[in-house]
């Protein structure tokens, strides 16, 4: 037990010796060593979801452009970009789009191929194909009925011929 107390005292003496040493953050190294002595350092191992592309509304882009144009001093634009989490390339692209004067330049566009509107002739062809299938099914039923009627008439004809022979 005495050894442990001595070791603790030695650590405290080292902390007192380094009292004048400060980090760039203004926190002395002795403060941090006391705070985090017993806490293990564990890296963050959580897997994040797939990143999603940010999209900005036209109103947001206009507001940021107005704020950037209002910046007079040299470091104000950098502070604006840091505050909003943007890059200078965003600002540059939005300026060029605004100069071109295109109405849709400031609205975010959906990526990928444009959806195609179905052609009227294609829709009409599909409807006609469905109708043809229905008519073919009806025709098959009608042919079966006709075949059955022929067989029935043949049977009755035979029976009628037999009855006439008997008479």
Runs in which pLDDT lies below 50 for 5 or more consecutive residues are 1-29
The span between the termini is: 135 Å
Query: Biggest sheet, in brief?
Result: none
Which H/E pattern describes the elements?
HHHHHH
On the 0 to 100 scale, the average pLDDT is 76
- Gross geometry: elongated
Could you say which structural class the secondary elements and strand pairing correspond to?
mainly alpha
Helix percent reads 55-70%
Relative strand content: under 5%
- Radius of gyration using CA atoms only: 44 Å
Q: Count of helical segments?
A: 6
Total beta-strand segments: 0
Structural features, described:
The chain has helices spanning 2-17, 29-35, 58-70, 76-84, 88-100, 120-166. The model is unreliable at 1-29 (pLDDT under 50). The chain is elongated, with a radius of gyration of 44 Å. Among the domains are: 58-106, no CATH class; 123-167. It is mainly alpha-helical. Helix content is 63%, strand content 0%.
């Amino acid at each position: 037990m005495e050894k442990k107390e001595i070791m603790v005292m030695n650590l405290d003496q080292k902390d007192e010796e380094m009292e004048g040493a400060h980090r760039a953050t203004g926190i002395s190294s002795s403060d941090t060593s006391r705070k985090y002595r017993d806490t293990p350092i564990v890296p963050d191992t959580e897997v994040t979801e797939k990143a999603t592309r940010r999209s900005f509304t036209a109103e947001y882009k206009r507001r940021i452009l107005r704020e950037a144009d209002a910046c007079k001093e040299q470091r104000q634009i950098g502070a604006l970009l840091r505050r909003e989490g943007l890059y200078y390339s965003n600002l540059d692209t939005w300026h060029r789009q605004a100069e071109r004067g295109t109405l849709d330049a400031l609205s975010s566009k959906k990526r990928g191929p444009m959806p195609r509107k179905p052609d009227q002739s294609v829709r009409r062809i599909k409807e006609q194909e469905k109708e043809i299938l229905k008519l073919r099914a009806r025709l098959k039923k009608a042919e079966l009925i006709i075949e059955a009627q022929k067989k029935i008439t043949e049977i009755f004809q035979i029976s009628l011929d037999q009855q006439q022979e008997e008479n």
